[in-house]
Amino acid sequence: MTMLTDRQQLSYIAAQAADARVNLELETEGMTLNIGPQHPATHGTLRIIARLDGEQVVWAEPSCGYMHRGYEKLTEVRTFPQVTALINRIDWLGSFANEVPFILAAEKLMGIEAPARAQHIRTILFELSRIANVSLFLGDLGVQLGAITPVFMAFRDREYVLNLIEGATGGRFHPNFDRIGGLKDDLPAGWIDETRTVMKKLRNFCDEIENLLFGNEIFQSRTRGIGVIPRDVAMQYGLSGANLRASGVDWDLRRDQSLPMAWNKVDWKVWTHNDGDSFARCWVRLQEVRESTKIVDQLIETLPAGPVMTKVPRIIKVPEGEAWVATENPLGEMGYYVVSKGDLGPFRVKIRSASFNNMSITPWLLKGVYVPDIITILASLYFILGDIDR
Amino acid sequence: MSTLSVLAIDIPYWAQSLLRVLGGLVAVLLPAGTIVYVFLFKMMSFMQSRLGPMEAGPFGSLQLFAEVGKWLQKEDICPERADKFIFKLAPLIVLASTFLLVAVVPFGPDAWFTNFEAGIFYALAVSSVSVLGILIAGWASANKYSLLGGLRAAGQLIAYELPMVLAVIGVVIQAGSMNLQDIVVAQNAGSMFGWDGVGNPYVLTQFVGFVVFMVAVQAELTQAPFDMPIAESELVSGYMTEYSGFRFLIFFIGEFATAGVFAMIASILFLGGWGVPFAWFGWSDIDSIDNWMNIVGPLILFTKMMLVVFVIMWVRFSYPRFREDQLQRFAWKVLIPISLVNIMVTAILKVAF
Q1: A50: β partners
Q2: β-strand A47-53 against A56-63: which pairing, if any?
């Protein structure tokens, strides 16, 4: 290293100091933007605190809990049959799917299994609630991106599915239809023919959305390459459902797990995508709706005869023990860890909801994106606030 | 022509002034109301498998009046930390820009507010005044979402001003005039390769210019896919977030009135404006036109305006929105080069033929 004279050193320091002063002057102050709890894009009361540099996000963190209803605690003061009325409301768009893992866990503890017909109908209703849930996502996606028309189509066609669920269970949103040991009722007359036509309509709806939204250049430029989650990161953050499958992980609890349900009796496919970006997540969900309609179509053809309720005592007491059952719900893996002390109600229930874990990736994912992309990424991650806060 | 003569009646100066003020109001508010009713309420509902307003009046035709009544009843809220004077001024600036814009629009051979030599130049200049209103609305609201919306609007409107001007230059070269009246006459009296059956509407000969102009208009009006400044799913309502009551109403009416006026200007520049091809009635120039065109002309212009608004709204209802960096890239890298090439080709052909 060459020796500098004092004069050179001084001038060097002076130049550095001048640069630093200029940088200090040019540096702009960051802005903290509170997205939510009341904001049209957070569908619910999610709050995202984002520090912005211009329109670029420097740091972001979700703040959950504005809608915490304490379901885990509330289950402890209810009997087993009463709990389904509560857990219906966790993911309110796919209510029936919330009941199933809890009921399965209780049945596992009691050592009983629902009759084959009940298992089939459970699976049909499970897939119908998935269709009702995800078809609304497909419409809502357009609204988040500024296209207002798809959401009305989604509401129109989701109505048919809700009518089916209402026809079978009596409740559009909160069926509360699943019982320990089977189902409350059998399917009403004419329901199967109705389902067949509705599934056809839903497949048309999928084609419509694919043409209107997924084929649009602006939609693609807004979602392709935005919010990319690599395979290993997705697994580290515990993502599940379509978010995980869009990152190229072939993992679906419906196929990979043997539960007393009817998925393994029919022919369907688990879709994955290798890109891991927002587009991939939306696309995988679109394909899942199609697969669900196929599952329902096949199941109503092969519906076995028999009772829908097995023999259970009038007053249900679940034997002492612990059970964990998780299913592939519309939003991802949803599981219940049920601890029973042999009483009328559970001693403790831990609810593993999909959205809460899917949400946890947002601080990592939102770093460095632009404000409009926050909305696209959140929309494509697809969470339901009730599912985050429980 | 210094005096206004409708159906061969000469009107005194004071009555002319009064008529012009009233006419200006009608020319701005009537299209705005019609667009809101026909397109926003009814056509949008039709596209979205809804019925739209039905209760107020026959087929819901009085819905807009009901809405105006609702807005007028609402409290006029001004945020505590807002810059009060500027906050209240902003919607008026936006609306004023629309009224200034309509001043140069010709509605018939003699029905015009001002016959201005540099008409289109003036129109493009005053249309950018609305940026000021939007920018100060965003700034004065003391709201972060409004600020983001206002800044986005400023960036967007300035970026799309340029392709709009460049697209118009093609028309100006072809018509040989900046006067909107002359542009209308040049289209209707013109002929394409010696055939004057439809005149020479510049939508055919300046098609590239027309497309660029319509895209730029869409961006100027901040309609989807260029509605980042409002972007209700991101910025709540952008620069309009803090406005309520009749100030919001002014923004709302201003938005649709501007859509109407821009559609009028687009139909004047590219679709032949108030005129029909002169060959149909054997007219040769503006002085030989029959007087009844002063009544029929505005109706023709209105019909053409509705056609153009239909296109604007159709795009608005079916497209998702751009991100603002994609939007800027689209303006600077796609639209401006295309319109520059268009100008060059037009100039070469103008000299050649």
Answers
A1: A33, A60
A2: antiparallel
User: Which residues of chain B does A146 touch, with a Cβ-Cβ cutoff of 8 Å?
Assistant: 224-225, 227, 231, 233, 319-321
Please name the residue of chain A whose CA is at the shortest distance from the CA of residue B314: A149
**Selected residues 279-338 of chain A with any CB under 8 Å from a CB in chain B:** none
Task: Note the pLDDT tens digit of each residue in A294-345.
Answer: 999 999 888 888 888 888 888 888 888 899 999 988 888 888 999 988 888 8
Q: Which residues of B touch A374 (CB under 8 A)?
A: 234
| pTM: predicted TM-score of the whole model, two decimal places | 0.80
ipTM surpassing 0.85, yes or no?
no
Q: What is the pLDDT of residues A235-276, one digit of tens each?
A: 888 888 888 899 988 888 888 888 888 888 888 888 888 888
What is the C-alpha end-to-end distance of chain B, expressed in Å? Answer: 32
Q: Report the distance separating Cα A264 and Cα A266, nearest Å.
A: 6
Hey, is the C-beta of A371 within 8 angstroms of any chain B C-beta?
Answer: yes
Tokens 């200090």 belong to: A24
Cite the DSSP H helix spans in chain A. 6-26, 71-75, 80-87, 95-110, 116-145, 149-169, 191-209, 217-223, 231-236, 242-245, 253-256, 278-301, 354-359, 362-365, 371-381, 385-389
- Whole-angstrom CA distances from A141 to A353, A363, B206 are 22, 21, 37
Q: Would the CB atoms of B323 and A370 count as touching at under 8 Å? A: yes
Give the angle subtended at the CA of A380 by the CAs of A378 and A383, to the nearest 5°.
60
> A28: how many CB neighbours lie within 10 A of its CB?
7
Rounded CA separation A349/B193 (Å): 83
DSSP state of A318: P
